[in-house]
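Thread: quick sanity check before group meeting

JM: Hey all, I'm pulling together slides for Thursday and realized we never actually wrote out the predicted structure for the chain we discussed last week. Dropping the sequence here so it's in one place. If anyone has concerns about the input, flag it before I start.
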Amino acid sequence: MAPIKALIFDVDGTLAETEEVHRLAFNRAFAEAGLPWVWEPDLYGELLAVHGGRARLAHFIEHHAPPMAAEGRRRFDELHAAKTRLFAKLVDRRLARPRPGIERLIDDARSQGLAVVLATTSSIENAEALILANFGLDGLEKITAIVGGAGVVRPKPAPDVYELALARLGLTPRAALVFEDNGPGLAAATAAGIRAIVTPSRYAGGDDFSTAFAVLSHLGDTFEPYQHIAGVGDEGGTDMVTVAALQRWVADDDDMLGLLTIGGKPVY
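JM (edit): ok, ran it. Output follows.
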């Protein structure tokens, strides 16, 4: 059995409930540009099926704004740059707070020598802004790598971003755990062969989590225990997710699966 050597975190919805901040930033960018577009929560929930801010904006222009699609295409880069700038400002005002247990688990992982990677189909600048605003420069230095952004050709649910993370780390899928918040992200991790723990975010309530290694309300923190929903985990809602617990869950899972061996060596 190989112990877990890396924790790979999705960003939006997993590190923090950022989607409302993204929605607000898009709406402010549209207003600044003098465009009459407003993304209401219901519409934004539909648009989240398209992963990545640039792809989401392009989809909206083509499918929801036909009367002004030509202008939207012409001003596309301007709009997305304005949205990125406004998102950073809103995050800097700490409108997107980390979800319970995130900072604690990252500290735990780093203290035990595990790599901590952020994998996102949003921009890397957005991920850096979120970490800097909430954890400061010290927090950013705890992150081993941030992968994704423009470097990913196919967004989630394709496995590209997680395969890129594994390649950057030089690890097999069984040596990492992914933390996700929604169905497409889980599908991406599953396609990459990595076990995933899902902590559902606001817009992901109806998603399919049947392939998750575990589904928990969040990662748990002092005086804020997580609630076990499905899969592995310590039922009863009294624990925080720790590296020791993760290693134990993975070891139990490997024992249950009865890993194949070739020449007496496990195949992961």
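AS: nice. The domain at 6-17+97-266 is CATH 3.40.50.1000 (Rossmann fold). The longest strand covers residues 115-120.
JM: adding both to the slides.
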